[in-house]
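About this split. The held-out portion is used to measure sequence recovery: a designer receives only the structure tokens and must propose an amino acid at every position. Recovery is the fraction of positions where the proposal matches the reference. Here is one held-out target exactly as it appears in the evaluation file.
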């Protein structure tokens, strides 16, 4: 514990810089530690492995605890058909893996597998209930609270509310299309979706984009005002910058989102878009919602997430248990410092 007290550095002494792989490093760390201005004593460390113990510690101490856990990617399956071969860059004659036993895949003879990070642009950490998980590293975060009522997009109810150091936006994660977050109050169901959008609009997440059913509605002054008031981007530009799907739209052209339709029961959606000329519309192949963030992006972003109120994430109890069972090493700690 004496050594632990020597390893905390103020960012002003050794600022973090991000590598090409998205990792944060501190150049000159050894030199900075040798002249570290911080001095404190760690008198005790309480280690917890079960989330109920973490809950009790949060209540008893009324302060943040630390959490370390494995960082994984999840495997998903996508239909490789004549209609999607160009987008997925697959071929039904040689890239096939068995398709999931899901009604949506009933008439699909060929599937491909692809990996995605387990943190969504909604700030939700999730695991694959029926798919593979692969370990890619570890991560440490601060636990600020818990909720037994919040339910994520995958149906997991209850979990820890954590404060993360990651920045929100595009192309900042390990191979993902982007990151997002919410306020702690949002995960506690203390604010509505509309009120949450005023402070944590997550403008680059497709969940936040305005839908309009035809060009007339998309161009309507009423729609524009509603989108502006809701901090919900309306006009989108095709950036076609995805590493997992290609040639969905014409690059640098403007589109509107018509709808997002659930395709299967495991997180895949079909997004349809209207070209700003009104001459045609298109639908992307089945994708995770976050995949669309690197295909389209708002033409103009007027409001970003408030870094003081946002940057909270949700880790379901079920995800913690699944990762612990598969990989182990899910551990929290509380420090007594003087």
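Reference sequence for scoring:
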């Amino acid at each position: 514990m004496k050594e632990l007290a020597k390893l905390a550095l103020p960012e002003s002494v050794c600022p973090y810089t991000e590598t090409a792989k998205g990792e944060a490093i501190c150049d000159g760390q050894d030199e900075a530690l040798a002249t570290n201005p911080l001095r404190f004593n760690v008198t005790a460390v309480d280690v917890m492995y079960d989330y109920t113990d973490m809950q009790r510690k949060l209540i008893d101490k009324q302060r943040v605890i630390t959490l370390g856990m494995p960082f994984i990617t999840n495997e998903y399956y996508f239909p490789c058909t004549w209609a999607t071969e160009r987008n997925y860059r697959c071929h039904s004659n040689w890239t096939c893996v068995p398709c999931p036993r899901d009604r949506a895949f009933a008439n699909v003879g060929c599937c491909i597998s692809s990996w995605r990070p387990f943190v969504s642009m909604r700030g939700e950490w999730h695991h694959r209930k029926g798919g593979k998980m692969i370990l890619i590293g570890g991560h440490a975060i601060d636990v600020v609270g818990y909720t037994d009522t919040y339910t994520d997009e995958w149906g997991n109810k209850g979990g820890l509310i954590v404060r993360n150091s990651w920045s929100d936006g595009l192309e900042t994660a390990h191979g993902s299309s982007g990151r997002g977050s919410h306020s702690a109050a949002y995960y506690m169901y203390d604010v509505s979706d509309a009120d949450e959008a005023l402070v944590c609009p997550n403008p680059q997440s497709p969940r936040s984009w305005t839908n309009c059913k035809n060009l007339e509605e998309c161009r309507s002054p009423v729609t524009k005002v509603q989108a502006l008031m809701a901090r919900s981007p309306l006009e989108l530009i095709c950036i076609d910058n995805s590493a997992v799907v290609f040639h969905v739209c014409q690059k640098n052209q403007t589109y509107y989102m018509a709808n997002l339709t659930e395709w299967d029961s495991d997180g895949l959606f079909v997004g349809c878009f209207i070209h700003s000329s009104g001459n045609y519309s298109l639908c992307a192949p089945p994708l995770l919602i976050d995949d669309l963030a690197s295909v389209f992006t708002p033409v103009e972003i007027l409001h970003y997430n408030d870094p003081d109120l946002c940057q909270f994430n949700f880790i379901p109890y079920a995800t913690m248990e699944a990762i612990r069972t598969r990989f182990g090493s899910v551990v929290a700690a509380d420090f007594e410092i003087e």
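Annotator remark: DSSP finds eight helices and 17 strands in the chain.
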